[in-house]
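Box 3.1 A note on notation
Throughout this textbook, protein chains are presented in two layers. The first layer is the amino acid sequence; the second is a token string describing backbone geometry. Keep the layers aligned when reading.
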Amino acid sequence: MHTASSPQTRRDARRSTRRRPAPRRRVSVIGVFGDLLLTAGVLVLLFVAWQLWIGDAIIGAQYKNEASSLTDKWATETPAPAPSPTASSSGAPAPTEPATAEPPALPQPGDGEVFGVLRIPRLGSDYQFKLAGGVSSSVTLDPIGVGHYPDNAMPGQVGNFAIAGHRGSHGAPFADLPSLHIGDAIVVETPDGWYTYRYRNLEYVQPDGVGVLLPVPQAAQVEATDRLITMTTCSPRYGFSERAIGYGVFESFTPRANGAPASLTSGAA
């Protein structure tokens, strides 16, 4: 015997066949903490990328522009070199002005006082960073670029012209110091002219290896007779376990009135 179902029974059957909503995911303290850690990790990676590449590129470009503006200013303050005569009134060839001269002695700069621009053609035609007194991060290296160790020789003087620069932050002027080749030009430009050194060699020392700053590097009690440049930076690039030290030997001084030296364009010997 067939018995018809009641309307109430049919409604109950339809309700039972409807898709039941999925249970809501319960938010736990562990889940929230995990999400926060993931977000923090992404932010740290972005910060590291900024510090390692993007920030250095932006700050380095800014420092190079500042140095270029300074050298342009010096150029406008000094008359252009006059053409050298090829013969005297008697018909004999006239002596030409020497391409180099005795380097003028520069006074020791104050802390953070800019006195020159460092140019290394091997590292790019636009490589130029301001040089200032002192090697503290807060006063010189971070806001300016390259610093000079106080009381060491100045450019062109007998002794050790010792300078420092970051390798992995704040424009990283010495990021590629180990890539220099023997004979590469290292040029210090000042209002008076250009001091050209030639790269000699690289060595690695412990962070407390201050012997590299002696008048004759690593040779205590030895009187200096040469004119050297010493460039110090951290090693590895984003570490502090060692110091990379680049050395060079003075070659010549070119007065500004003579025009820029060939070392700025040829780069290597």
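The radius of gyration is 32 Å. Residues 116 and 190 are 5 Å apart (CA to CA).
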